[in-house]
């Protein structure tokens, strides 16, 4: 029986809600748009028209894959972060709303600097650095990333958002000291791998089976990258510059102690929208 685009969307939304998916409205819209090849505006405009059986079948196949665990962002190959459209592949983590809290805190600071250099370390899709560049027009941003696949996505997203003049991707290893040629930054932002290695197999199927383990594994206690970045990358931060971290649940106090031991002061902890301590940031003391 033929179905209109609007009724197809409503049917998919109901199906996702019954499966307990919190973002059912958003995900239903994205799956129907992608499966039918329509933009959001076109879907709204053509809601009363009938979808062909082929398009309906394509959408329902996508939904079945999603209900089996495959994230929507990987199914459609893109996602939105801080208002920016981003290409996404299985080489990068899917940008999450929690990370917008990190981006927002850093952007507030970057806007006060005027001309400055910013490093998004462990950049993944480049979402944080690109958000910073979009909101602070006088900032020049480096997307530092180790994975070749992630760097490819960074390059695509720089082009997609028209930021080639102020944002550059660079292959760096966050666990090693930076090359002097990288120069100095007024702000370093990092959402590093922070899942304890032994916990990865217990994660939700949508994360464990689809997202890149390289971007999840934070070592035995999940804190390897916080130790390395706080110690080794402060060399790339100007005295008085700020370092911003996203942290996992229960990690904020330990990350604060790590930063304090490496000479950071005025360290703050910021909670996310679910009241979970999610961001830790501090200032590199000028006497170092």
Features:
2 domains, 288 residues, Rossmann fold, seven-stranded mixed sheet, 11 helices, two-stranded antiparallel sheet, alpha/beta
Outline the structure in words.
By secondary structure, the protein is an alpha/beta fold. The chain folds into 2 domains: 3-68; 78-284, Rossmann fold. Helices cover 39% and strands 22% of the residues. The protein is built from 11 helices and 11 strands. It has helices spanning 5-18, 24-36, 40-45, 53-67, 72-76, 97-110, 127-135, 148-160, 205-208, 224-232, 252-261, and strands at residues 3-4, 50-51, 78-81, 84-87, 116-121, 139-145, 167-171, 185-190, 237-246, 264-271, 277-284. The strands form 3 sheets. Strands 7-6-5-8-9-11-10 form a 7-stranded mixed sheet, sandwiched between helices. Strands 1-2 form a two-stranded antiparallel ribbon. The protein starts with a strand and ends with a strand. The model has no long low-confidence stretch (mean pLDDT 95).
């Amino acid at each position: 029986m033929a179905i209109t685009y609007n009724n197809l969307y409503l049917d998919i939304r109901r199906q996702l809600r019954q499966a307990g998916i919190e973002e059912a409205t958003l995900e239903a819209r994205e799956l129907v748009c992608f499966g039918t090849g329509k933009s959001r505006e076109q879907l709204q405009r053509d809601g009363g028209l009938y979808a062909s059986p082929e398009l309906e079948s394509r959408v329902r196949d996508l939904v079945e894959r999603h209900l089996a665990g495959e994230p929507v962002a990987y199914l459609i190959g893109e996602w939105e972060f801080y208002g920016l459209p981003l290409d996404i592949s299985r080489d990068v983590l899917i940008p999450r709303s929690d990370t917008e809290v990190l981006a927002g805190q850093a952007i507030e600071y970057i806007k006060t600097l005027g001309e400055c250099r910013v490093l998004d370390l462990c950049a993944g899709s480049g979402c944080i650095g690109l958000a910073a560049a979009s909101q602070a027009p006088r900032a020049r941003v480096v997307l530092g990333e180790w994975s070749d696949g992630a760097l490819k996505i960074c390059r695509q997203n720089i082009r997609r958002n028209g930021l080639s003049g102020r944002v550059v991707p660079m292959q760096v290893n966050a666990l090693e000291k930076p090359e002097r040629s990288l120069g100095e930054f007024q702000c370093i932002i990092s959402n590093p791998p922070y899942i304890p290695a032994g916990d990865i197999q217990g994660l939700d199927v949508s994360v464990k089976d689809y997202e890149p383990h390289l971007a999840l594994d934070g070592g035995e206690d999940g804190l390897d990258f916080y130790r390395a970045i706080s110690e080794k990358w402060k060399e790339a931060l100007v005295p008085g510059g700020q370092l911003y971290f996203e942290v996992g649940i229960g990690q904020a106090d330990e990350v604060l102690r790590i930063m304090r031991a490496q000479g950071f002061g005025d360290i703050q902890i910021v909670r996310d929208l679910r009241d979970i301590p999610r961001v830790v940031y501090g200032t590199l003391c000028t006497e170092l």
